[in-house]
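Problem statement: downstream parser choked on a complex file, so we are re-checking the raw output for the guanosine-5'-diphosphate run. The parser issue turned out to be on our end (a line-ending mismatch), but while we're here, posting the original submission so the record is complete.
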Amino acid sequence: MRGRIVRGIAGFYYVQAGSRIYECKAKGIFRKDKKKPLPGDYVKIDILDEGTRTANISTILPRTNELIRPAVANVDQALVIMAAASPAPNLNLLDRFLVTMEKQKVHCCICFNKQDLVEEEEKVRLLESYRNTGYRVLFTSARQGDGLEELRQVLADKTTTVAGPSGVGKSSLINRLQTGISMETGEISVKIERGKHTTRHSELIYVSEGTYIVDTPGFSSIELYGMEKEELQEFFPEFVLWEPKCRFAGCAHIKEPDCGVKTALEQGEISRSRYENYCQLYEELKDRRKYRTLRQ
Ligand code: GDP
Ligand code: ZN
């Protein structure tokens, strides 16, 4: 039988097959497939006991991708949630998240929740910050139910990893989406219980057939692992368009004269907050390199 791992805890994997969830072990998998099962994996299972819903994972099917943070397989896109206010959006943290997803080649959508707490001007300011980036920006209110239809459309038929700092309303939004299901289909056979205590593990939440969200633990800071300062600019999609206009090959867009990116910034084609966050991350990567060399 074929199924999908929705979560893994302490050597047990919970595999959804149709409307059932089986508790599985993965005996012999590592020796055979040379890899550990991950949430999101499509697997073949052998039923041990239908009554107790226990099974063994016999094969991990090929992955389309594999993220490191969060550790999850077969993800189509990422959704990053910030609050439009309370807590005030931290665009530096948001840009860090976007950079790590670009590096992992995962397309991202941005959602500002709690839109009920801000005026139109603030929404325009947030939108402007991501103008020309190619990222879709949504505004929602889990409290008032605004923007949920658009959010559902973004999620439909995909597996989306959902992340954000705590307190932005991620749980409220997810609950809203799940309520939507119970109203539409009348019965949720595979609604996965969300524990009160937040886990350190990622888990897949079934939204509707073919639609899953990967709930990841809230974060308060993001380190840029394994990244060189020279490659950082590749992860700012709107910079790539202007780079050919730079006079110097390998321009870092910081102190160099005749820089296409800085010209775009002056013309308002690239937002100041994005540019400033780029510069800050660049400096951080530069310092880290220095630090590493000193220690060697
Ligand atoms: P999480 O930590 O990101 O999962 O955030 P929660 O879903 O627990 O929400 C944090 C707080 O924000 C709670 O007090 C929610 O009631 C509140 N909240 C969530 N969504 C909204 C919203 O759209 N508008 C407003 N005003 N408050 C919200
Ligand atoms: Zn440049």
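For whoever reads this later: Residues 180-198 have pLDDT under 50 and may be disordered.
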